[in-house]
Structure formats: structure tokens, C-alpha cells
Amino acid sequence: MIDLFFVDQSGFAPTLPTGYGWGRRGRRVVVPYEAPQGRRVNAVGAFAPYDPAGPRLLFETRRKAEGRYDAATHLAVVRRVAGLPGEPTAEAARGRPCVVALDNYSVHHAAAVTQATPALAAAGASFFYLPAYGPELNPVEPVWRQVKCQDIPERSHPTDTALQAAVDAALTDRAPRLAQPTNELPRRA
């Protein structure tokens, strides 16, 4: 057996998509627009849909002030996800190999990642790159959509700190629900 994680990044803007809104009769619902310059929040998530203990989501968010998601940050996330020894926040060391499925984001192919690949492989972690233009192959993509469109009720955030708190709360709430079984369709009587 292997541990399989799908890792992906998603950006959250201060004004999130609004599909519909409810308001008092005769009054128009207005969602204030907040310009995204320097106030986006990026999230990286590692989703393990086939974990024997049940599906789980590991994530972290960062504002622009906390730095970009670069190759060094990506490698730190992979080390934590794979539970490699020596990583301060790593999960317990695994007794089986870990495969990290990635899309073709340029950070995933950076020189630092390529140079670290042999050392990661020796520690039991390897990469699998999904085909280009195939987001439907990555099961964390629907999680991002649900968080953006359904789990954050406040659609406009005046500061990046407020947005990060909302994203963290939504992902923290969503993660345990991923492990719950879905309801079956009602059967005809």
C-alpha cells in the first residue's frame, strides 16, 4: 500500500464569487467590491481521499505579507504531508511509501524541487504529475469550489487578515466533513 495525497493551491480574493443573494423584498442586495491588490490569500491543500482511516485534508494558508508560495515552501509542505523524519510539524513517520500527485504549476517543476526529488525518493516520498489541463483528475479541486462558493458566508472582506481567518475557518469546518459518508439517494417505495 501507499499513501496518496493530491496537493493543489488555490487563491482567494477579498470579494468572493456571488451566485445569488437573499434580501428584503423591494431592496437590492449589494456585496461591496474589495480590490484584490496585495490582499489575496493563497491556500495549499493536501487531500488524501483513499486513506484507510478515512479521507482527510491537510491545509495551510498564507497572505502576501507572509511570503510567496515558492519551491522552498512547496518542499516544506511535501515534507510535512509525507511525514518525513526531521520535519518539526510532520505527521508520524509512515511505514509505507508516500506519493504526492501534483498539477503542472511551475513551482512543482522548479530547480530546487527537481534537485530535492532524489532525497525525497530515498525517504519514501515521490511525485506523480497529473496530465496538463486535467483538473477533474484532482479530487481537491471540488473542495476549493465548495469552500469558495458555499462555506464562506461573508462574500466581501476588507482586510487580508479577515479573509485569511474566514478561509481558515471554512477549511477547518470542511476537513472533518470530507470523512463523512455521503447520503444515498432515496429509494422508491
Keywords:
189 residues; alpha/beta; Nucleotidyltransferase, domain 5; five-stranded mixed β-sheet; 5 strands; globular
What does this structure look like?
The structure is a single chain. Helix content is 28%, strand content 19%. The longest helix has 18 residues. The chain has a five-stranded mixed β-sheet with strand order 3-2-1-4-5, sandwiched between helices. About 3% of the residues have low confidence. It has a single domain, classed as Ribonuclease H-like superfamily/Ribonuclease H (Nucleotidyltransferase, domain 5). The chain contains four helices and five strands; from the N terminus they run βββαβαβαα. It has 189 residues and is an alpha/beta fold.
Please give the structural blueprint.
Layout: E1 3-12, E2 41-48, E3 56-63, H1 71-82, E4 98-102, H2 111-122, E5 125-129, H3 141-151, H4 160-177
Parallel strand pairs: 1-4, 4-5
Antiparallel strand pairs: 1-2, 2-3
Could you give a short description of this structure?
The protein is α/β, with parallel strands linked by helices and 189 residues long. The chain contains four helices and five strands.
* Assigned CATH class: Alpha Beta
CATH architectural label? 2-Layer Sandwich
Low-confidence regions = 88-92
Sheet with most strands: 5 strands, mixed
Supply the number of helical segments: 4
How many discrete structural domains?
Answer: 1
Numbering strands along the chain, what is their spatial order in the largest sheet? 3-2-1-4-5
| CATH level-4 homologous superfamily | Ribonuclease H-like superfamily/Ribonuclease H
Quote the beta fraction. Answer: 15-25%
Q: Which radius of gyration do the C-alpha atoms yield? A: 19 Å
Mean pLDDT metric: 85
Under CATH, the topology can be stated as Nucleotidyltransferase, domain 5
Envelope shape: globular
Q: Topology as H/E string?
A: EEEHEHEHH
Question: How far is the first residue's CA from the last residue's CA?
Answer: 41 Å
The helix-and-strand class reads alpha/beta
